[in-house]
Amino acid sequence: MDLSGSGQPLNIWAVSDGRAGIESQVLGLAEAVARLRPAAITPKRVRFGGLYDRLPSGLKLAPERFLAPGSDPIEPPWPDLWIGAGRATLPFAVRMKRLSGGRTFVVQVQDPRWPPHLFDLVVPPEHDGLTGANVLPITGSPHRVTPERLMAELPPFADLIAALPQPRVAVLIGGKSRSHDLSDERAEEIGAQVAAAVREAGGSVMVTFSRRTPEEAEDILAEALGALPGIVWRGDGPNPYFAFLAAADHILVTEDSTNMVTEAASTGAPVSVLKMDGGSPKFARFHEGLVRQGITRPFTGRLDSWTYPPLRETDRAAEEVLGRMGMGA
User: Fold this and answer.
1) Could you tell me the end-to-end alpha-carbon distance of the chain, in angstroms, rounded to an integer?
2) Strand ranges (DSSP E) for 35-166?
3) What is the rounded CA–CA span in Å between residue 137 and residue 145?
4) 147-298 adopts what CATH topology?
5) Which of 36, 108, 208, 294 is most buried, by the most CB atoms less than 10 A from its CB?
6) Sheet-wide strand order for 168-173
7) What is the chain's pLDDT, residue by residue, as a tens digit (329 residues)?
8) Cβ of 18: how many Cβ atoms within 10 Å?
9) CA angle (285, 289, 293) in 5-degree steps
10) Considering only the top CATH level, what class is 10-139+314-324?
11) Beta-sheet strand order (sheet of 39-45)
12) Strands 105-109 and 81-84: what pairing?
């Protein structure tokens, strides 16, 4: 595909099942493409219901007929660029070339668990181990964090944050997943370790929780860290997540979320990783890679400082997409 001579903005669909972490990946890559070339981005969410949802992706024939209520239509006019992630998007992604008459360039984020040759480009995390001629492994996952966005999101919270003593420590807490959990006991350990480190440094905390954080663990951490100078955000009012990243002198993040760790690593602030219950070989490879690059360190109970080049893998993936579309620099 070569659209380099076209003066029209790219029409990009960013397609997911609507889960926040998945949608952030497709929007992040779409926005990175749009920073390099004028583009109109259309987010789309697709889900299936009932027995159809339980079928293997390869058996989901005529998927447009079985979309769950609230899903966005997948119908012409087709996009120039499809960026999808998640199981629900696959029945459409593998048909998109045929449906569009070869016009749409199809990118699938994450390992689709389908042969990569069915897509124009697959962008999986490097720790998945997927390789191929049309595969671009990246460190972590695509995301929406940029220096410009962080600065734009800071002003509504600037007065609150400015009053906090330094060092200001962003504490990003995840939760239960297929590979990790956050028990009450581990939450107590994290709370005590982080509180001791912040008190010793004379600093403050900026705490956020995930939708996946178990309620009991969240209560424990909110009590332990709420006794420090700082802000503990539990979902009330505007979300200060990006403002916390912008203002952080240190970032502490639980090991369960590739998204949160990668976003933290894009700031240039020291990133310490908090151990959770559980784990997996894939996550171990991910974290070992970041440690080798000098980006993250396991949290040892101290607020150590170091520097590293901020991670810019989303931009690298966007350049690859445009290059393969014949629109590179």
Assistant:
1) 15
2) 39-45, 81-84, 105-109, 121-123
3) 19
4) Rossmann fold (3.40.50)
5) 108
6) 230-233, 204-209, 168-173, 250-254, 271-274, 296-298
7) 545 455 689 999 999 999 988 999 999 999 999 999 999 999 999 999 888 888 887 788 889 889 999 999 999 999 999 999 999 999 999 999 999 999 999 999 999 999 999 999 999 999 999 999 999 999 999 999 999 999 999 999 999 999 999 999 999 999 998 899 999 999 999 999 999 999 999 999 999 999 899 999 999 999 999 999 999 999 888 999 999 999 999 999 999 999 999 999 999 999 999 999 998 998 999 999 999 999 999 999 999 999 999 999 999 999 999 999 998 75
8) 17
9) 170
10) alpha beta
11) 39-45, 10-16, 81-84, 105-109, 121-123
12) parallel
d(CA 254, CA 193): 13
**Distance of alpha carbon 315 from alpha carbon 174, whole angstroms:** 25
Name the nearest CA neighbour of 222 among 249, 190, 254, 265.
190
Residues 68/49, Cβ–Cβ less than 8 Å: yes
Q: Which amino acid is at 226?
A: G
Give me the residue spans of the domains in the chain.
Answer: 10-139+314-324, 147-298
Tokens, residue 32:
């990175």
Judge if 10-139+314-324 and 147-298 fold alike in CATH terms: yes
Q: Which amino acid is at 126?
A: E
